[in-house]
Amino acid sequence: MKKHNFSAGPSILPPEVLLKASQAIVDYNNSGLSIIEISHRSKDFVDVMENARALALELLGLEGKGYKALFLQGGASTQFLMVAMNLLEKRAGYLNTGAWSTKAIKEAKKLDDIYEVASSADANFNYIPKGFDVPSDYDYLHCTSNNTIFGTQLKQIPQVDIPLVCDMSSDIYSRNIDYSKFDLIYAGAQKNMGPAGTTLVIVKEDILGKVSRDIPSIMDYKLHIKSGSMLNTPPVFAVYTSMLTLEWLKAKGGVAAIEKENEKKASLMYSEIDLNPLFKGFAAKEDRSMMNATFNLTNDNLKETFETMLVEAGISGVNGHRSVGGYRASMYNALPLESVKALVEVMSELESKA
Amino acid sequence: MKKHNFSAGPSILPPEVLLKASQAIVDYNNSGLSIIEISHRSKDFVDVMENARALALELLGLEGKGYKALFLQGGASTQFLMVAMNLLEKRAGYLNTGAWSTKAIKEAKKLDDIYEVASSADANFNYIPKGFDVPSDYDYLHCTSNNTIFGTQLKQIPQVDIPLVCDMSSDIYSRNIDYSKFDLIYAGAQKNMGPAGTTLVIVKEDILGKVSRDIPSIMDYKLHIKSGSMLNTPPVFAVYTSMLTLEWLKAKGGVAAIEKENEKKASLMYSEIDLNPLFKGFAAKEDRSMMNATFNLTNDNLKETFETMLVEAGISGVNGHRSVGGYRASMYNALPLESVKALVEVMSELESKA
C-alpha cells in the first residue's frame, strides 16, 4: 500500500520522478551504463547539470537577470557558513524566526559581527516579527522564508537596499512570489526539489567578490560558478533527481500552478484545525505556513486513539518536532490533495467518536 | 549491451548493488515508501546509517580501536579544508604526489603553515617520493594513497610518530594494508565505495579537540561524531548505496579477497602494457597503481584506429586525464576481470594489425 507521506523532509516526491530515477540507476537512457557510474564530465551528465541549473532559474522567473544557479553539497547548514564567508565583511543583519535562523546566526557570528534585527524567540517562534529596521550600511540581511518546525512562513518580503539573502529550504518552488527581490537564495533539495544530498544556491553575481578574506576554494561561490557547478565531483544522483522534479513542476505549469494546489491543500487543512474543537493550531494565523501545518490535540487523552487511526489510514510522518510537540502535516509540492483529505477525514472521524 | 566501464570516477558499481538501489527508490523494504522520501531520523534510515558506519570500520579491521566512521558531504575537496581546520595548530607536513595533494596543500595553507616534506612535481608526478624526513613536532603528516590522474600508488605507509592523515579516495577497500597505521582516513565514495555524494571520514577520536580555533559547526568532526553522522540531513541515497556496496564487499570475503582479484586485473593490464611495443606505461614501475593504469601509444598515428576498436568492443571511460594524456584504465573493485581481458585483447589485436 502506497502511504500518505507527510514527512517533513526528506519528503514525498512525485511517483513519476521516483520511477525515472529508479530506471536511470540501472540503465541511463539506454546507454548500457547507470547514471551513477559515468563520469560527471561526460556529455550525458554535463547535460543533466546544465538542464537542472537552467530550470532552477527559469521556474523562479530569474533567467537573464544576472543570477547563477549552483547545485552544491553540504545542506543549508553549510550555507550558514558559506554565506558569511562570501558576503560578511563588517556586519550583517539576521531575522530570527526559528531553529534554522538561530543556527545561521551562530555560524556567521564565528566569522564576524551579526545583529539580530528582530526575533520571535519570546513566543517559541510561533509568529514572524514585523516592522523591524535594517541599517543600510549592513553587508546583507538574512531571513528564512519558511520555518518547518514551527509552521510559520514569511508572507512579506523585507524591503531593503542591501543584499537580501534567504534560506528557502522548505518552501522554494511552492509559491508565486517575486524571487528577483532576493540576491541570494539557498535551499536543501529534500523538500520541494529532490532527494537529500544537494543544495541549490541561486546568487546574483554582482554581490560577490566584495569581501577581503581569502575564501577557501570549496566555500567560494565565484569558483563554483566559474566551474559550472563542477568544482569537484557533484552529487550526481541528487542533481539528476532534482532535475526530474523540476521538469515535473514545469510540466504541471510551474510555480503559479502548484501554488494554487498548495493553497487548496493548506486551506482544507487549516479549516479542519480551526473548526474541529479537538485541535488547536500552533502558529499565529496570519503567519501560517502553506507547507507545514503545526497543531496539537486539545485533549491529550485522545493521543493514542488518534495515532492508531492515523496508522490505520496509512498516514505517515505527521509527528511534530520535539520543540513544539503535537503534530505537523507537511504538504510539499508532491503531496496530493487526496492525502490531505485522508488526514482531515481521520481528524473529523475522531471528533465524531469523541 | 552492458559496457566495460573503466571510468575513473564516478565509476562502476556491482550490478546487484545497482539493482537493489534501484528497487529502494521505488519501494524500500515493502514499506510503501521510497528510501529517498522518508525521514533520516526514521528507524529505517538510522539503521542504514549505523550499518554503513559499522561496516566501514569492520572491513578495514578498525572496529574497537578508537575510530569513528562518518558519512559526510562535500567530497575530498571539503576534507582538504576540514582536516586543516580540525588538526592544524602550528605546522603540518604534506607529501605532494599529484594534483589532489597539491590542492590539499593549497587549502591548508590558507589556514596556517604547511611544509611539503617531498614532491614528485619535477617529473609530472610519475613516481612516489621516498626517504623523506618529517619533524616530530608537526601537527600531522598528510599523504595521498593513490593518484588517479598519474596512476601511482603509495606502497610504503610512512612511519611517523605524529598523526598520519591519508586521502584514500581512489583505493580504499582495494588492498589489505594495516589501516590502523593511519589516524584519519578520508575518501570520496565514488570509486570503490558507492555513488558520488558522500565522503567517508574515519578518524581516531583521540587526535581531535587539540586546536585552538573556533571550528565552524559543519566542519567540526567532534560534532559530527556526537550526532551519529547526522549533524544535518545526510545524503540518504549515497549512504544507502555505499552500505550496499560494503555489504557486497563483505560477502565477497572482504578486502583480502578483493585484493587478490585486483592484483590479477592489474597484473594482466601491466603485462600487456609492458610486452606490447605499441604501448608505454606512464608511472614508474615500482609505484604503479593497482587501481589506475596510465599508458600512452608509442605511435600516435594509431590513435584513431585504437579508439574505434575500443568503442566497437564496448569499452568505455579509458581516456587519460588531460594533464597526462593517453589512456587510463581504472580497475576499481567492481570491475570484472573479463573487462580487463576485453581491453587487453583490443590492445593485442592492435599489435597484430599494426
TrEMBL record, chains A, B:
L-glutamate binds at residue 41. Pyridoxal 5'-phosphate binds at residues 76-77, 100, 148, 167, 190, 232-233. It catalyses: 4-(phosphooxy)-L-threonine + 2-oxoglutarate = (R)-3-hydroxy-2-oxo-4-phosphooxybutanoate + L-glutamate; O-phospho-L-serine + 2-oxoglutarate = 3-phosphooxypyruvate + L-glutamate. Binds 1 pyridoxal phosphate per subunit. One of its GO terms (biological process) is L-serine biosynthetic process. It is an enzyme of class 2 (transferase). Keywords: Amino-acid biosynthesis, Aminotransferase, Cytoplasm, Pyridoxal phosphate, Pyridoxine biosynthesis, Serine biosynthesis, Transferase. Pathway: Amino-acid biosynthesis; L-serine biosynthesis; L-serine from 3-phospho-D-glycerate: step 2/3; Cofactor biosynthesis; pyridoxine 5'-phosphate biosynthesis; pyridoxine 5'-phosphate from D-erythrose 4-phosphate: step 3/5. InterPro entries: Aminotrans_V_dom, Aminotrans_V_PyrdxlP_BS, Pser_aminoTfrase, PyrdxlP-dep_Trfase, PyrdxlP-dep_Trfase_major, PyrdxlP-dep_Trfase_small. The keyword Magnesium does not apply. Its cofactor is pyridoxal 5'-phosphate. SUPFAM superfamilies: PLP-dependent transferases. It is found in: Cytoplasm. The keyword Cell division does not apply. GO terms for molecular function: O-phospho-L-serine:2-oxoglutarate aminotransferase activity; pyridoxal phosphate binding. One of its GO terms (cellular component) is cytoplasm. Residues 5-343 form the Aminotransferase class V domain. Its EC number is 2.6.1.52. Pfam families: Aminotran_5. NCBIfam families: PRK05355.1. PANTHER family: PHOSPHOSERINE AMINOTRANSFERASE. Belongs to the class-V pyridoxal-phosphate-dependent aminotransferase family. SerC subfamily. This is Phosphoserine aminotransferase.
